[in-house]
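Dear support,

I submitted the protein below through the web form. The confirmation email said the job was done, but the results page showed an empty box. After a refresh the structure appeared. I'm attaching both so you can tell me whether what I see now is the final result or a partial one.
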Amino acid sequence: MIMTICASNNRNAIVDGYIGLVNHFPSKGEIIAVIPGVCSKEEFSEEIHSVVQENFRSKGKIGSKILCLIFYIKLAKLAKKENVRGIFIYSDSEWPNLIHIMMPSLRRIKTTVFIHDPKHHSGEQWVIKLIRNFVYPFYAKKALCLLSYENAIEELKRSHPIFKNARLRSVRLPGMAVMEFEDLKSAIEQGKVAFEYDLIFYGRLEAYKGVDLLLEANRYLQRSDRSVRILIVGGRGDLKNEVRLAAKSDHKVCFVDDYVSNRQLAEYIAKSKAVILPYRDATGTQTIQIANYYYKPVIVNCVGCFEEYVKEGQNGYFIRDMTPEGLGETIDFVLKSIEGQVFEQKQIYETADALFNIDQIAAEIETLIMT
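What the results page shows now:
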């Protein structure tokens, strides 16, 4: 029996990715899936042996930590009862991971952990870095560590020398199943979805994601009569007011300042010509997978996993110069390429399927957990 664990305070990309992976593991009947309280059990396959939902959120800072400890004691007992021989940790919440390694009986079970961020990037809180100083020694000595791109292995070793002799493997993040709506994809294939936007940006409105650079690039294009229609979707982040002001002053910048459902976001992507991700700093992501599923090329900076997830001219393009002028010219080039039908649906699909096939990646991860 295998126990998979995802602990998270929020419904986010890591949680959605976990749902997709667990539901695509070949041996679902051998899996005990521990899921965040922000999920529902109905989102998981009925073929899974059992689904256990955490219950320690929204109890206050002290109360939630006490309940977290109690919950992990119960998990340890369950692991013993079910003769669990492997644990897979896929979390973005560091406190439960710390509690996990405090359980001697759980520590003794073969552990595979997905390390989503090989380095402390600018979008993270300092407390996460602090907790990792306690968790990482266990991972480095006892666990098989999976990272979402090949270069992340060296990045992890540089930022945390304790991993120099650790067991490290790179496995790409797969397509995000909860964002894939077959009827919408079919409508795009049949030419039934009209373009309303040239570009779409979605995610947290932070400087490290380059949303401010996008706005500056748009102003650069305006000055040369090449303005574009931009949709920005994201209700959180330090640059929220800057985006709101830009949308008020420019009718071609549309800002959706609210939570949107997976379906709504997919529809916005379908109505856009390209997805733009001008991140200054990045690690792993599934934004490219979502864009490519709907036959949209991506415009990205060559950081983090982007270098390995984007094949230039096939499923996206790189920003060569991270300045307003450089980004502006890249945007202009990509949009003209789309108008000239340089990007073909078949090409984007075949490239994305070769890189992000969830059945293949889930089978690879399951094999690593079980062997």
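Response: this is the final, complete result; the empty box was a page-load delay. The radius of gyration is 21 Å.
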